[in-house]
Known about the structure:
The protein has 240 residues and is an alpha+beta fold.
Amino acid sequence: MIARFWLGLTIVLGAAGCVGTADLGGEDIVTVEDLREACESEEPQDVELEVFFADPQQLCPFDEDDNLPREEGAMTARIEQVASVVLPEGGVACDLAFDFQGIDPSTEQIMVYDDHFLLTFNDVVLASNNAQIAEALPADEDGLRIYDWADIVGIQFEFFETPNYCLGEDEGLSDCTIPEPEDPGPISLSFEGDLVDLLSLRALEQQRYDFGFVTTGDNDDSDCSHEDFGFVVTAPVVFP
């Protein structure tokens, strides 16, 4: 069974925002082990969730709200976008499979951005083109990097020869392809195993499924920009 849900979108210039909440069920699921047991107890139904981030079509908001004035090589400003998905009532996701060709299979999904980006799920950083920025964020007890602008605003960063960040890559639980800044190219992400269980349990605890896209800049008019892009997340869902 395939169900499709179109997502709302909001652009946030100050504190992070969200669009809606969901009743995700699973009141008796409080640990990863509980989640796995629930997912093995019945045949899951596949739910496809379309995520789309539109070109913000605005300049980087330097020196506005909690953004800083322009400064080369520093994390001074950002634009945040949030897309919230809603599972069927009472549903619990047992996996999250990303398909960057799913929205329009006839067209290759090309990503273009400037300067840097962070892709998040319920504030957990899934991927970034700059590991130096992602790893400046604090990690929780599970080692998940939690995005908060206040933790990285003003830090200095390197433009060149900086590796990408892909959650769980060092443990062999993920694989990411990320283009360079200002260089159009394909993007793909995959996550598996314990990592997906942690993300799904976090969604249950917080009662939300929010994908976030943060673009940042230092001093150029083209900073904080990206072109339209989207992807499909397939979530096998059970109803414990």
